[in-house]
Predict the 3D structure of the following.
Amino acid sequence: MSTTTLTAPAPSRRTATRPHGLVWSVLRLHRTALWVWLAFVVATAGFLLWLTGPAAHDAQHQLETYGYAGVLEAASSSATLFSFTSGAYNDLFYDPDNLITLGGFAVALFAAGPLIGRELENGTAQLAWTQSVSPARWLAAKLAVPACFLVLGNGLLAALYHHLWSAHSNLLVAGITPRALYFSLGPATVAAPLLGLALGALIGLTVRRTLPALALSGFVYFLVYAFRGNHWPFQGRYTQPVPTSNSWAIDTTGAKVPDPDCYLDRGCLASHHIARFAREYLPSPDYWPRQLLETGVLLTLTALTITAAFTVVRHRAA
Amino acid sequence: MVEYRIDRRSGVATYVQIVQQTKQALRLGLLEPGDRLPTAREVVEATAINPNTVLKAYRELEREGLVEARRGLGTFVRRTLGAQPADSPLRAELESWARRARAAGLDREDVDALFGSVLDQHFPTSDELFPEGDQ
Amino acid sequence: MSSTSTTPAVALAATGLGKRYGRRAAPALEDCSFRLPAGRISALVGPNGAGKSTLLALAAGLLQPTAGTLTVLGAAPGALRDRVAYLGQNKPLYPQLTIADTLRMGAELNPARWDAAYAARIVEEGALRPGQRIRGLSGGQRTRVALALALGKRPDLMLLDEPMADLDPLARHELMGTLMADAAERGTTVLMSSHIVSELADVCDHLLLLGGGRIRLGGGIDDLLAAHTLVTGRGTAADLAPHTVVESRTAGRGLTALIRREGPVDPAWQTEEPSLEELLLAHLRSPDAPALLTPATTAAPLEVRA
């Protein structure tokens, strides 16, 4: 029998820098999803940095010239009002939040489908379980590797978003939406997709078929999303207190004076000797209690879901 | 080195085929004392048969004193199987017997059957080699 | 053929093993008790739905039994995953990976035992390039890669579910040869399911026949064949007592029957040793025939631990 040589895969050399074992296999199997995630994080981070820097220039100028009237003017100047695709700064400000929310849905769907459900449907999970890898270790790696990327990516985005809020929340039109955004930025922004990951995995393990798992996972994560938005101790949209806004004018002597209600009338502003305007959102005292409580609840639910997932996998396979 | 061919349709047990082919190689001088038989691994890799079948055949050859297993080295030919030379007295006797049988009106199949039954009577060990007993 | 010192004498031992998918479903396996001695190459035979795949999946630690116990290489199923290889019926592989990546995965997931050169050689004998994606391979080519993955971990026990079903005759011969060489060299125990009896006769030395979720026959093929006789002659099935008649058919004025001998057969009957195929078919056609397990394959009555 002829034996020619094929460049055999190098024997695995354990180094601290190179991923090996299950971590390698999870990274390799979900390489595409990983690149998509990295692209999403980079694009969203770039978007946030742009909003923090150059994009704020015009809106900032309107605020300083006309006060809150200028903010309203800047927000309504765009051709498409209050929509996802609006070019107005006030609307662009909320787009990263929508993207991060969609990202959470995508994570839940990914976990239910390609990560877990499809593997069980195709039998490739069983292939992994009949290497020297127990189903529990397999599931642990399947959850831990994406969770690391989620925490790092969403942590970066939440930090940048919080920075954007600190710098430019004064350019937002007052109402419910700034408040909702304010309460959704923080550790809970990082914790929610983790719950999505856990829920998707549990659903994938239970349903074991890709398409039904995708549908169910999307629905369940929508319930989580809706519940978070509307119920205390989450963001609880319609309960007090709210972060209050405070605006004032500064006259040519540098003294703080009330807004003379000139709106966009430059003559009126000149007659009142108004040099510029300033405005800020005052932090709400219940931001941290709410954020920590929400994060705690989300992480607890995540832990329970993961425990359930491990129970399912242990019950199914020996 | 001898390479075995396994005929799955022949009806002859696989280990018997190995025994027969080894003996054939000995008769033809293809294997001589001191030659090594292929290892069980080599045989099964080429023929896709069960390793125990090869070992069974080699045990049979060893029992007949044709080969010997040397621990860790392999299985080696001990002695050869000499065919009876063409001019031996035994052959002359058989030839005269065959002429008489033909003169007595026996056809080929009759002689075959007769010869076979005498063979069975005098060489009973071959029964173990042919458990189907269809000769 | 020598088995390694760490291999216990029994590769698989089942006692009252049962598996039911769902409470109302008929059991896929029921009250199976048997032992598979280590170092044997055993054929797991039975009609569709007999429970072959279920038994293999239980042994691979992919399913939990609903009744009874099963030990694999002396431990619980799934406890020794590094020493047991399993090839599923559908030969699942990751379609997005290349062959090289698939083998790399074998190395990464079996760090203690992986034989990279051996696995690469099995793939290469099929004229496959390492850069080819699994997605683009034919069924037979996928089987080859899946077998390379199973053999590459150098297991002590191989569980193969219909391993050769979609291979061409050449590849089948070659891969069976590779498998047998591995068994000859390392004393690997092999349990492979199939319903192509002719394929098994040369390869296997041991047999487990499953029918209706139960073990019908178990033991060395030679021993099982020797325990049965094909008889032809004048008479009725009742005349064959005390032998167990597995199956009988009329032949002219008499009958032909496959019997399990109890003592010598009356010389009035013409006797013949059955072929493996005849033995299997007779048992499959007669579901009521009592089961037969040879002593080495019968489950130990009590779990004796050394």
